[in-house]
User: What shape does this take?
Amino acid sequence: MTSIDPLTFPPGFLWGAATASYQIEGAVAEDGRTPSIWDTFSHTPGRTKGGDTGDVACDHYHRYREDVALMADLGLGSYRFSIAWPRVQPGGRGSINEKGLDFYRRLVDELLEHGITPWVTLYHWDLPQELEDAGGWPARDTAARFAEYAALMHGALGDRVRNWTTLNEPWCSAFLGYASGVHAPGRKHAPDALAATHHLLLGHGQAVQAIRANDPQAQLGITLNLYAISPADPESPGDHDAVRRIDGLANRIFLDPVLRGAYPEDVRQDLAGVSDFGFVQDGDLEVISAPLDLLGINYYSRHVVGAPDPDVPAEPYWRASTSWPGSEHVRFHKRPGVPVTDMDWEVDAPGLTETLVRVAQEYPAVPLYITENGAAYVDTRNDAGDIDDTERAAYFDAHFRAGLAAIEQGAPLMGYFAWSLLDNFEWSWGYTKRFGLVGIDYETQARTLKTSGHRYREVIKRNGLAE
Ligand code: IFM
Assistant: This one.
């Protein structure tokens, strides 16, 4: 009988780290790149902390060689990065901007030379501004534009890139971008958020079909930000209904159409006062549910929710009712004594196990990858200049164990990507939040591997935990 070490991941488990174009690249006006919705949004006064923008960010556009060397030093098996659409197809239409594409060609070559598997995300939120001006994601044509761009990118890089994620976290693009408006493009109209959801998913499905038609070997997937959700009071039917609603809007409104080919009926009913889903056309759901090779799951925390309470004061953005159309009065709870990260997100590693096992049990079988997991903490440097981020290291350690527990319970978990390789531009929080395994000094652009990075290197080397 083979004995399986409970601290070791299966052979071939893929260890990686992730980033996103606007959060790290900088060089926003170089080599023909035109503005995305995040350039416009971050340059609009009052939209980001301190007026921070991605203009320079980590200057990765110029320093990618140094960053790939860091990845190699960490022992990464894969690097998940996103392509800035307005860099490679300015305006979101027409031919490729070869100079912009050359950057990704160089990056992919550099990765391959270091034995690191490139993993491309096609859309991590930087929609070309011209497409937003033409209606953005609430407009159906944006889906077709996305599929066209996806096919162009695959045509250019598909000989060396095997793994493709269409969208990163469409919940954020749709609900934060078009309902609460705390993300670009900053619109606040709940029906638009639902139309955006549908057109993002339609674009995903059309992109999968277009790439698949050219390359049956491509490994195609989508990345969803999924949450564990539980009732504040397990005895309360009202709290359980709040769980159903938020699970519907956070998880099932994406999982169901993609993996089962239908929007959940209860969610449609919850949303009846917001939208009649008239944007769904015949055949759309077949396109959206085109077979996938993998599902990417981004996991950070758990939502604990309960029945309405009109006296509850205004909440942070992700708890704000405007981010959850149709669930206006669900109350988000913060559990006393549960540690939170610098994002005010509760640390809940068992929620990762729960999420992976739930997807594996409730949806058609598809290999799962954790495409993001990580934590923001306030980092300090000691006299030697080291960043001893023990809280972040502990967060990672707990989530590795949660991944192992999910595998033990039968979830087909094939890989893990830490968020993030580098400290970076954390959207409306600007540079005030740090998620990196590598610290960035934004004055000098010096990179420093944090304690969490050193520990991650050991985990990768061992393909598991020491104890
Ligand atoms: O920084 C983001 C990333 O762009 C998408 N997932 C969540 C991260 C932390 O907020």
About this structure: The first helix runs from residue 21 to 24. The two ends are 23 Å apart (CA to CA). The chain is about 40% helix and 15% strand.
